[in-house]
Structures are given as structure tokens and as C-alpha cells.
Design a protein that fits this description.
CATH topology: Rossmann fold
CATH architecture: 3-Layer(aba) Sandwich
Largest sheet: 8 strands, mixed
Bound molecules: 1-O-pyrophosphono-5-O-phosphono-alpha-D-ribofuranose, uracil
Oligomer: single chain
């Protein structure tokens, strides 16, 4: 499969297993999701361009490096919010946009209910974050919205992806790379990922 990056770092996998376990309460779930998002960001940003930055060390001038472009983080509400703080700890200067998308529980079709993006998002590096890629409907709708806003460079970052969702996203948006900590077996008849972790939003927020 192309344009999919599996982050199978042993520390990430250990934390993901703890988080999936049904005995993790919402406090533990939130803490683990936050830590995994932070660790994943290190890998996700590995190929970003840098530009020269002249500085002066205590001993002499030198040309250092810095990220070449501004960064915008876009969580898909609600569950994407659970990853935002962890990503922000690695990228503290990032701006944040919000996209509200939820699935119709019967049809599984995405319903967009809120959008607020920084005005100059088009020229930034965008990380679209959502822990779950199930049918791919929500992710695909969010990517289409970002493209309409002029975004040229974006990555989709999730925790658990189903093969069905990866295929759907690749079909609709083949140029958008997907980063995930796990590729699970399949969806069940209600559109939940198996083995998955349950309903991410409910587990984060205790609803
Ligand atoms: C979950 C999840 C994704 C979506 C994935 O959100 O956070 O956004 O489902 O499913 P899909 O790939 O089939 O679209 P949900 O619709 O449950 O909303 P919530 O985050 O508000 O709970
Ligand atoms: N959304 C979730 O929160 N979990 C799933 O398994 C599928 C979609």
C-alpha cells in the first residue's frame, strides 16, 4: 500500500495496547492518547523542509535550521481534540483550526457541523488529526474541505485505521499521506473498527 505510514515504534505500541484495553478509564485513555500523539508527531514531521536561521551561540555566529513553513493543526471534532495537546507540545507555535464532523449512526455518512480555520491556512503545513479512520467518510469530507480552503500540503494522522477507511481515503485523496499507529482487521456491521478501541469520543470525554 502506498502513501500509508505505520508508526510501529515499540513505545507507541505499548501505550496503544494499554489504551485499547477496556479497563483503561477516561483519565488513563486521555493521558495515553496525549502521549502517543506527541510521540507520533516526531515521526510525522520527519520530512518537513527546513530553512537556514542565522544565530549567535555564546562562542560564535552560525547558521542553524528551523521549520520552513508555519504549521496548522486541524482536529476533527470531537475525538481529534484528544490528540491536539500532545501534537502542540512538539509544535508549540502551530495555529489551530477546527472541523466538526460526525457520523450519522445509521447511514455512517459524515455530517459537517462546524468549521473555523486560520485565514492564511493555505500556505501552511497542515496536520489533520482524528484517532479513528473507519469508513473514511469523516476524514475524506474534512480533506475535501481543507482543499477547498486552498491547503496544498497536508497529512492525515490517526491512531487506528481500518483497511476500508485507508482504501476510501486513498481513492478520494491519493496524494494525502496517512500516518497511523495501527492498521486493524475490519469494520463491523455498525462501522466500528475491529479490534479497535471502541468509541474514541466517548472514551476520551467519558460520555
Ligand atoms: C468518530 C471518529 C471519526 C469518525 C471515524 O467520530 O472520531 O471522526 O468517527 O469514522 P468514519 O471514518 O467512518 O467517518 P464520531 O462520528 O463518532 O463523532 P465524535 O468524535 O463527535 O464522537
Ligand atoms: N469511530 C470510533 O470512535 N470508533 C470506531 O471504531 C469507528 C468510528
Amino acid at each position: 500500500m502506498q502513501n500509508i505510514f505505520l508508526i510501529d515504534h515499540p513505545v507507541v505500541q505499548t501505550k496503544l495496547t494499554e489504551l485499547r484495553d477496556y479497563s483503561a478509564n477516561h483519565r488513563q485513555f486521555r493521558e495515553l492518547l496525549d502521549e502517543i500523539a506527541m510521540l507520533m508527531t516526531y515521526e510525522v514531521t520527519r520530512d518537513w523542509p527546513v530553512s537556514p536561521r542565522p544565530i549567535r551561540t555564546p562562542l560564535e555566529p552560525m547558521i542553524g535550521k528551523q521549520l520552513a513553513r508555519q504549521v496548522t493543526l486541524v482536529p476533527i471534532l470531537r475525538a481529534g481534540l484528544g490528540m491536539a495537546d500532545g501534537v502542540m507540545r512538539i509544535l508549540p507555535d502551530a495555529r489551530m483550526g477546527h472541523l466538526g464532523v460526525r457520523r450519522n449512526e445509521e447511514t455512517l455518512e459524515p455530517i459537517a457541523y462546524y468549521q473555523k480555520l486560520p485565514p492564511d491556512i493555505a500556505d501552511t503545513e497542515v496536520l489533520l488529526i482524528d484517532p479513528m479512520l473507519a469508513t473514511g467518510g469523516s476524514g475524506s469530507a474534512a480533506i475535501s474541505f481543507l482543499k477547498k480552503a486552498g491547503v496544498k500540503s497536508m497529512k492525515f494522522v490517526c491512531l487506528v485505521a481500518a483497511p476500508e477507511g485507508i482504501e476510501a481515503l486513498h481513492k478520494d485523496h491519493p496524494e494525502v499521506p496517512i500516518y497511523t499507529a495501527a492498521i486493524d482487521r475490519q469494520l463491523n456491521e455498525k462501522g466500528y473498527i475491529l479490534p479497535g478501541l471502541g468509541d474514541a469520543g466517548d472514551r476520551i470525554f467519558g460520555t
